[in-house]
Amino acid sequence: MPFEVYDFRDVNKNVLTTPEIRARLYHMEPGQVDRLHSHDLGHEIFLILEGKAEFMIAGHTEVLEAGQLCIALADEIHQVRNLLPDRRTVMFLSVTPHIQPTHTGRDPDGSVHPPQFRSNAFYDDVDDTGPLADQLDTFVRDAEALAAEARHAADTHAQQAQNWRQAHAANNQEAAVTARNTMWNAVRSLHTNLFKLDLLWNRLAPRADND
User: Fold this and answer.
1) What domain range is 166 assigned to?
2) How many domains does the chain have?
3) Boundary-marking domain end, from 103, 123, 143
4) What is the value of pTM for the model shown?
5) Is 9 helix (H, G, I), strand (E, B) or coil?
């Protein structure tokens, strides 16, 4: 299946929205100032593609132009301003991970606003319209399954850590690699299923406000 190609000069939307990452091509209008906010879980990366913008991150201000990049870490208060009075500024941004509520409004003194759960359509994603009771049941069932998997993974890690220690003591690299790879399979499975649960959460959470 062919992959999609996006041209930043024409596209102004989220091009990928998953629990792992939200990636967007963003056109800021002349003089536009975004609201002060932070992200509870996500790190945000900004890459200027065209124009000039002022970034305030964690109390420090810098001006970035095309080709420059900056990062706002999770929970760092930040704000962006397009410095051009007559032209747009275009950037690529990503927030990783993308878990609702993705934005936490802030006052200038750092005070936190109540959580704001936006519809998934706001992020160019899909809103769930199925029966709420079914969705709640699925989320709880999958959360319980993830908890059981986490307990099993902990047992696996304990056993393989012991195998790794013994392999290290015996200078047995093959056994050490086998133990390491077994631990990795458990870690990978946990992350995969956590992201699946996060996706259910992103579909579920806005419904309390939007149904």
Assistant:
1) 132-210
2) 2
3) 123
4) 0.91
5) coil
